[in-house]
Every structure is written in C-alpha cells, then in structure tokens.
Amino acid sequence: MYVLFGIVGLSILALLGLRLWDERADRIEWALLATAQPTRCAAYDPGMVANLPEPAQRFFNFAIIPGTPLLTVAEIDMGGEFSLGNRDNPNYQPMFASQILAAPLGFVWKVKMPGVVSVSGSDTGRWTRFRILGLIPVARMGGDSNHTLAAYGRYVAEAVFWTPAALLPGPGIVWEARDNNTARVTVTHNDLSQSVDVKVDTNGRPEVVQFMRWSDANPEKIHRFQPFGGSLSDFREVQGFRVPFAVEAGNMFGTDEHFVFFKARVNNVRFLAPEACK
Length: 278
Prior knowledge:
Shape: globular
Number of domains: 1
Strand content: 35-45%
Number of helices: 3
Largest sheet: 14 strands, antiparallel
C-alpha cells in the first residue's frame, strides 16, 4: 500500500513539475514576443497605403486613425466559448484566455475552460499543450512543419484585425485586390507564406476574414489546405486602432461543413507602447 501511495505521489509531483515547466516556457515565449514591439514608431498616414488596391486602402484607413503610432504587438484578454466537440455535437465550453500577438514572429494563447472537467493550456507558434484538471496532459504537439504552418496561418489571419499595423506595406507583405470589396494579403517570413482574404464594407470595416489553412481537422485526419475563416463585429477604438471585440471562426468556412468552434468576446486589447511611441 505504501508503495502504491509512493508511486501516486511521485506521479503527481512529476505532472506538477511538467505543468510548471510548461508555464515557464509560456512566460519566456511571451516575453520574447513582447520585445518585437517597435521602440521607435512612425505615425500612420494614409499616404502609406496610397499605392495599395482600393479595398486594402479602405481597410487600413478604417483600422488605423491618422497619427496613430504604428504598434505591431498586442495583448488581448478574452472570454467566450470554445468547442470541445464537433459540428454535430459542439460541446461548447466557457473559455477565458489571454494572448500576445506578434505577427509574423508568433503568438501565445493561454486558455482556461472551467467545467466538470476543467481544461487549460497554451497554443503558440511552436507548441500546443493542454491538460485536464490542471495536471493531466491530453494534448502535447508541435515542433514539426505541420504544426508550424497551421499556427502561422492563425496568427497572420488574426493580425489582419487585431494588429493591422503589422501588415502595412513592407518586406514580405504583398496586397492585391480580389474584387471591389475584398483584398488579399500574403505574408512571407523565413520559409513560411500565408495568404488571407479580408472582405470590407463601404467604410472599410472588415466583416469577414478567410484563408486556406493547413489543418488535419477532417474525417481522414490528414494535413491539407482547407477553408478556414470567420466573422468580425463590435468594433471599438483602442489607442488609435479600430479592432473587433467579437470574433467567431471555424473550419471549412464557406462550405456546408462549416463549423464555428471559436467564439471570442474580447474584454481588453493593449498595445504596450514604449515611451518613444506614446
């Protein structure tokens, strides 16, 4: 009996140690991405986008107020719902999450889903780690090209609506028109490239963001490019940026198999500005 208790105790200690190690990795990654914030900021001028396709100009002139310091890294606090099921049985759970977004370098999304069996963990450009009851790992993946490419699609798409200054014209960023109200941005960084379409209204407010995402969210569990996207609403001004405080997104966007698994209600967005950018 003592041996059994000893084994259980050592197992719990090992799981606790693993959790603390993961949380330390989250903090290190978060701090590293925060250093990507510009230390000297130009201010937004519509002339910066004058050579872009008209729907892209409309988007930027809505999303960034003239004179706004061009901060490219944001911290986001959110609530909402996250599905732990599928299209037929979504099993939505309340979620509370914090995120740092620093495209094209990466992101960290830390989430807690309280419930009968609580779920917590983090998703980043380098790993996905989730556990139940605060200790027991149920998902540990990353460190391979499939995870890297899938994650890259996510944070490039999120940059469109939460950190638009990160997608202003520059090296590795190409904008083109798809139609009168849709622009496509292609972001290339190192060996990664992702195209994202943003549909805007007459005022330039982005209504829909969609792209082909590398994913194995399909019955065959095979990684392939497939439609992903979502809708944006409840725009609010934050430090000179107009960003959505409601985002719903899911797999197979625009098809009969579309499934919204992410329903975020943002509580706060912060652009941590150095003194030179205030």
